[in-house]
Design brief:
The protein is 13% helix and 18% strand. By secondary structure, the protein is an alpha+beta fold. The protein has one domain: paralog of FGE (formylglycine-generating enzyme), CATH 3.90.1580.10.
Length: 267
């Protein structure tokens, strides 16, 4: 599906979380009223198909391609994959030569059956280049959270407070024991199609889970160069990263690329 833009009225909403689910060090709180002008936002994250059209039109070379590698989740690599450098504090992340948006797990992989999945291995700078080409921009953190809440106030997820209401999976996150065993109870191991699961009250898909999404803002904690990411990803699990919530925050350097970070557009 083409990435439909959904027009939102804006206005005042309560942003943030200082309840028991918050990570205090992430700056989720305090809960405060924020006012927004009307804006539009993509119903879905930008897909591989859409990003391919951008690359075909502009010849854009992503930062992962220029660096020659990107971070790939070890559980998505074949058993006989040669040893590569891991991240010290997060050994499930492997530095894979030749991994970029078109070959998301390295040179042995491709996008067959994944054109409708979110593009990954794109940096904040790559996302900015796409937006410039498309006549759009990245959403601010406040716009992203307002959109993710889908008209609900003070809820944990885009649909309410229950992770799996009635036993139904509403997003693509990790089930089982992280990082060694994923039961795939939600139907997916890596990324899912951008229209997987029911949309929220504003008609927006996968605002939580699936892939982290770049926002426009500088992150207000730590080095001033870092940029905000929102929404969590298919690797989030309550045991270490319960950031698949509408108020949860994260950040990366603007040239960072990983196999679980993409973006959606705003206007």
């Amino acid at each position: 599906m083409a990435n439909v833009m959904v027009a939102l009225e804006g206005g005042e909403f309560l942003m943030g979380n200082d309840g028991p689910t918050a990570y205090p060090g992430d700056g989720e709180g305090p809960v405060r009223p924020v006012s927004l002008a009307p804006f539009s936002i993509g119903a879905c994250a930008v897909t591989n198909e859409e990003f391919a059209a951008f690359v075909d039109a502009t010849g854009h070379v992503t930062e992962a391609e220029r660096f020659g590698w990107s971070f790939v989740f070890a559980g998505l690599l074949p058993d006989d994959f040669p040893p590569t450098r891991a991240v010290v504090d997060a050994p499930w992340w492997r530095q894979v030569e030749g991994a970029f948006w078109r070959t998301p797990q390295g040179p042995h992989s491709d996008l067959d059956e994944r054109m409708d999945h979110p593009v990954v291995h794109v940096s904040w700078n790559d996302a900015q280049a796409y937006c410039a080409w498309a006549g759009t921009r990245l959403p601010t953190e406040a716009e992203w959270e307002y959109a993710a809440r889908g008209g609900l106030e003070g809820k944990v997820y885009p649909w309410g407070d229950e992770l799996e209401p009635g036993g139904e999976h509403r997003m693509n996150v990790w089930q089982g024991r992280f990082p060694t065993h994923n039961t795939r109870a939600d139907g997916h191991l890596g990324t899912a199609p951008v229209t997987a699961y029911e949309p929220n009250g504003y008609g927006l898909y996968n605002m939580t889970g699936n892939v982290w999404e770049w926002c426009a803002d500088e992150f207000d904690i730590g080095p001033p160069t870092r940029r905000s990411t929102r929404g969590g990803s298919y690797l989030c699990h309550a045991s270490y990263c319960r950031r698949y919530r509408v108020a949860a925050r994260n950040s990366m350097e603007p040239d960072s690329t990983t196999g679980n970070t993409g973006f959606r557009i705003a206007r």
